[in-house]
Design goal:
Blueprint: E1 9-16, E2 25-32, E3 37-41, H1 48-55, E4 63-68, E5 71-72, H2 81-85, E6 88-91, H3 103-113, H4 118-131, H5 147-159, E7 165-169, H6 177-192, E8 196-200, H7 204-207, E9 214-219, E10 222-224
Parallel strand pairs: 3-8, 3-9, 6-7, 7-8
Antiparallel strand pairs: 1-2, 1-4, 4-5, 9-10
Helix pairs in contact: 3-4, 3-5
């Protein structure tokens, strides 16, 4: 797993509340490093989805500081946010596929947004759909796909453009164990290319599948880090950390 001493994401004393309710996240502080793999765990209601929303800039915190790619994203002008979001791939728990587009066209969307030509798009999208076992369903629309198939299309769409950060909310929740491991290997392959990966999951068995991963645990809206692992760059050969 690659690593770097310069951070790609920093949260400092971040809090989040919806309306006038109590905070769903409190005093969240951590640093993510390029080329690292993180699991975000915690019981249902611990705040995992809320924290992911902050990570992919769908939600602004109620307090604290968030820096991404060297930018303070809280004070960043709204018109500059789309450029930052394009560097982040997201696998949503509810998939969010475009219903009138085929599986192929859903996966191709991020590449088309960047202005890539159709001739350049065809092979990588076809290869990606083959990787997730959907080469025979390329022309199918979301409504004709099973939940597991929709999940795989959503994952293929999130990783096709090789984002700098990949955020995945329970990405293996609708697939069988064999496909879950295969999708995890896809995330690992992307990670080896330099993408920082954050996977939220309640499946403790997955945590053992990526030996070099770091684990972030949320408990009632607070981040538990008893080892202190998140304060430092990931361990790598040659520097001891």
């Amino acid at each position: 797993m690659a690593g770097s001493d310069s951070s790609i994401v920093q949260f400092a004393n971040v809090g989040l509340r919806y309306g006038t309710d109590r905070e769903v996240l409190s005093d969240i502080s951590f640093t993510l490093y390029p080329g690292s793999f993180y699991f975000l765990t915690g019981a249902s209601g611990a705040g995992k989805t809320s924290m992911l929303k902050l990570l992919y800039l769908a939600q602004r915190p109620s307090r604290g500081m968030i820096s991404m790619f060297g930018e303070d994203v809280i004070t960043l002008p709204r018109k500059a946010l789309p450029d930052v979001r394009r560097r982040i791939g997201v696998v949503f728990q509810d998939f969010r596929l475009v219903p009138h587009l085929s599986a192929f066209d859903n996966v191709a969307l991020p590449l088309r947004i960047t202005g890539m030509s159709e001739s350049q798009i065809q092979k990588p999208v076809a290869d990606m759909l083959e990787w997730v076992g959907l080469e025979h369903r390329m022309e199918a629309r979301p409504e004709t796909l099973s939940g597991g198939e929709q999940q795989r299309v959503a994952i293929a769409r999130a990783v096709i453009a090789r984002p700098e950060v990949l955020v995945a909310d329970e990405p293996t929740g609708n697939v069988d164990p064999e496909m879950a491991v295969k999708l995890l290997r896809l995330f690992e392959a992307l990670n080896r290319l330099g993408t920082t990966v954050v996977v939220a999951t309640h499946d403790v068995h997955l945590l053992r599948k990526v030996p070099d991963s770091l684990i972030m645990r949320l408990d009632k809206g607070r981040l538990s880090d008893p080892t202190g692992a998140l304060k430092y760059p990931p361990k790598r050969e040659g520097n001891g950390r």
